[in-house]
Amino acid sequence: MGAWWVALLATLGALFVGEVMGQAPCELCWYQRIAMFPLAWILGVAAFRGTGGYNWYALPLAAAGAGIAAFHSLIYFEILPETIHRCGAGPSCTDDAMVLFGVAPLPLLSLAAFVIIIALLALSSRKTP
Q1: Are 46 and 82 in contact (CB under 8 A)?
Q2: Taking a C-beta distance cutoff of 8 angstroms, is the pair 97, 28 a contact?
Q3: What is the pLDDT of residue 9?
Q4: DSSP type of residue 16
């Protein structure tokens, strides 16, 4: 249930940033959305049905999203050069638009959400006999 709340909050946050704040997602943000949005549905259905086995679907998505978010964070913080990945015709993966409310870098928030989801899924799989 906790992983679903994190995925739902992250999905609604991404929609808020894009649709309400009018900020277009960069290419790496789109890939992270591709991993996060289905997690909100998969984990939501699993939470309300009370069925197990969803980790087979959710963990690979969360791990892929975490990998992309980690890569995006390394580029954002200039640990990796931006030339390693060009964001194409959309917004830049590293400019000031990647900061929410002036303090929270979006790639880092995304990475935190994926890591929390992975941790909660790992904990729930340990409880399941």
Answers
A1: no
A2: no
A3: 95
A4: I
